[in-house]
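ARCHIVE CARD
Drawer: 12
Card no.: 0347
Subject: one protein chain, sequence and derived structure
Cross-reference: see card 0346
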Amino acid sequence: MPTDTELPDMNVWFEQLEKLNQQVTQVFMSSLPAGSGDQTGEIYRSLLASQASSAATQLTLQQEHARKQMELWLSFFGRMPDEPVKPVIEPDKTDRRFHAPEWQENPIFDYLKQYYLLTARWMMDMAEAAHLDADMKKKLVFFTRQYVDAMSPSNFVATNPEVLKLAFETKGESLTAGMKNFMEDMQKGRISMTDESRFVVGENLATADGAVVFENELFQLIQYAPLTETVAQLPLLIVPPCINKYYILDLQPENSYVRYAVSQGFTVFLMSWRNIPPELDKLTWDDYLERGVLQAVETTRAISGVSKINTLGFCIGGTLLTCALAVLKSRRKNHVASATLLTTMLEYGDTGDISIFVDEAYVDKREAELKDGGIVQGKELAMMFACLRANDLIWFFVVNNYLKGKTPDAFDLLYWNADGTNLPGPMYAYYLRNMYQQNNMIKPGAMKVCDVALDLGKINVPCYILATREDHIVPWKTAYASTQYLGGKCEFVLGASGHIAGVINPPSKNKRSFWVGGGMTDNPDEWLEHAESRAGSWWSHWSEWLHEHGGAEVAARSTLGDAEHPVIEPAPGRYVKVRCD
């Protein structure tokens, strides 16, 4: 243990760290998506109005909370030195905040932890018991959770024993490093979730061999070099999400979906969406279809010398792809043989916790701001998604980076997560209004895109639809609903884990599981009840399915592009390297 003369000035130390914690909290609250904070007054006014109808339930919850707190208080004072005491409440096994032994071994911090957990449970139970309409209760529960997560003792210097211990052991150097990390993140306008110095796009991310063979102001089209002597005759065009960089599908060789598809004997083309600059702030949803997906379909067909291609869309990329398929069908252009939709919503009736932010007031506000132009910052969208899992994607890094002064681990997926893209305002506003707010996509004729009245029922190509069971962005039952609106034969597959980890699950890892073959019904629970569980990755299952629609085996081409579409530059191209920072 260091002597008193070796310790930092503790008064200055605590003053600096409490100031840091206040700044962090303010940054987090101010970073909530525009308009979300405006709802809290309405929510709690509704709660007060509902109290009379739920008074008996609330009284019962308050009495139980008081009883548990008294039990905790008595156990604290009755605790004998070095004698284990059965806890009144324990954190969930998946809760990383209180894993360190200091939270159990020190009676004071053990008490603080349990006091917080009891209070958090009581607050959440009170929110759940409120007699409110479904939308208002959902908001109340969500924002109560945000408050509960923010007020955890693990987030404050004076009540986190791990932070205090590390500060003494490093003679205050951890605090100095934390301050430095905080100031650097303030300049970035976001929380660092990984050691960003360890990754470079094109060097150890997005390294699959290929070339850019077409580009316009909206996207670059990458064609990948074959890894097999023969390939399926019909190529595969991948439409990634336009709100993130494409290389989530080509992280590193061992977890690259692109490399896997190429190794399975498919000629792969992929769209690399542009990080929209201010001069393109008036691009619309139609532009993303006509000058984006539809252009990519035509170019892929032309280079490949085939009449039809296979397609794949991921998240909003799947939404755009489906709109494009409907346009092609209306134009009587049978250019697509099959479609794969990964964690994609076509039906927006239940969008999960995202609906907390994207309510009518938010859509009205953003539409008024953006309908004539403007840029939606990628970091705004990233913060919205992070708020859905605040403990894992915000507060964990606040404690690790700022209070402990550590550099986060190098994690390719989190590097990608922080490398967002800007969107043009009119396109984003159209998407919010027609999908999230009005759910128009599933209503025949309700949406007109590229001068075509949209009708998903006319899309009669076979579809492979993947959802993931723990997805907090695209609820799996909502993704399942796509099977009820598309006109072609659907193969529905449910993967384990979440929106990204459930998709990026290479067979070589032999991790997780997936469900198939539940029989197409209008009830997702019924489908799951009859589905077969299989260990490992869904990638192999998808590859077998796609080969059924790939046509004959032909010799792989030795060159990329063609005379009309010569190689512009090596993959990954320029567009993917432009950051929002």
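Annotation on reverse: The chain has two domains: 4-194, 210-351+426-576. The CA atoms of residues 366 and 380 lie 12 Å apart.
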